[in-house]
């Protein structure tokens, strides 16, 4: 009887342990599918208030898509970074799980992040470095073609110095470094491809100098601010993505302070090489993104959102027309540009 009692006790203990292990397994599996909060950081492609108008709709669409794929996300928080670098820093620290950022920012933080998607954009009818075409009097227009690259342009404004430089370029004359150095430039952070890096490389190729060598440079927190400075003649020249005027044609006079159409008051005095599109990256420090199933579901969800009418409306402010899978090697040209600016050989 004593042996029988001991045997029964051991059996009950083992059964309890097995039940406990089974219960723990179920809880872990459930937690993988239930996420309390997903934190997404967005680069300041435009001013923060404008971008915030789309974060609600985009969050809702993303939650719905992830739910379809078996993941319940209770809350998606989308914040606009104070700068391009701030988004990379948030991903590096793990304070953001995913981020929408430029290829240049990704390359700066590629040890702390993984690139997941490349943004698609509408192509422009002017895809050339020929300044005569850019200043032929016809506005730039979007085409129906979706492309994986864009360019950066040097845009002059209505200030006397800006107009004088544009007239010289229209005559086919190349500005001197002294003339450029005498202008007030409005630029983005050094992590911005179109707002700093590629224009710097353009200046280096043309003059052997970069934005850092210019005497009068003001950094803007967004392209909206940069254009407003141009319109109000606080700056003579701005560096920006090539579709900046098309995007802001209506806002130039209504919101930015222009006194005539953007086509009459601005001109293009420089065009860079092609730039690979923005990215959607994930943080290597994020516990959520360490789950390969969730990472795939997140990427697939954004691709699917970009193929819907509601999704395209939400992505409009970001300038994205959908997404395609990305690989790190696609940004090797970006790495080359950064190495050249640093004076390094690839």
Structure write-up:
With 346 residues, the chain is an alpha/beta fold. The chain folds into two domains: 33-120 and 278-333, 3-Layer(aba) Sandwich (D-Maltodextrin-Binding Protein, domain 2); 123-275, D-Maltodextrin-Binding Protein, domain 2. The chain has 15 helices and 15 strands. The strands form four sheets. Strands 2-1-3-14-4-15 form a six-stranded mixed beta sheet, sandwiched between helices. Helix 2 links the parallel strand 1 (34-42) and strand 2.
Jot down its keywords.
6-stranded mixed beta sheet, 346 residues, single chain, 15 helices, 21% strand, globular, D-Maltodextrin-Binding Protein, domain 2, alpha/beta
Work out the number of β strands: 15
**Using only CA atoms, what is the Rg?**
25 Å
- Fraction of residues in H or I helices: 40-55%
CATH architecture of the largest domain: 3-Layer(aba) Sandwich
Overall geometry comes to: globular
Tally the helices: what do you get? Answer: 15
The share of residues in extended strands comes to 15-25%
Provide the low-confidence segments as ranges.
1-30
Mean pLDDT: 89
**How many structural domains can be distinguished in the coordinates?**
2
Please provide the ordered H/E string of secondary-structure elements. HEHEHEHEEHEEEHHEHEHEHHHEEEHHEH
Q: N- to C-terminal separation?
A: 81 Å
Question: Could you give me the name of the CATH homologous superfamily of the largest domain?
Answer: Periplasmic binding protein-like II
Q: How is the biggest beta sheet arranged?
A: 6 strands, mixed
Q: What is the structural class?
A: alpha/beta
CATH class of the largest domain: Alpha Beta
CATH topology of the largest domain: D-Maltodextrin-Binding Protein, domain 2
User: Looking across the biggest beta sheet, what order are the strands in?
Assistant: 2-1-3-14-4-15
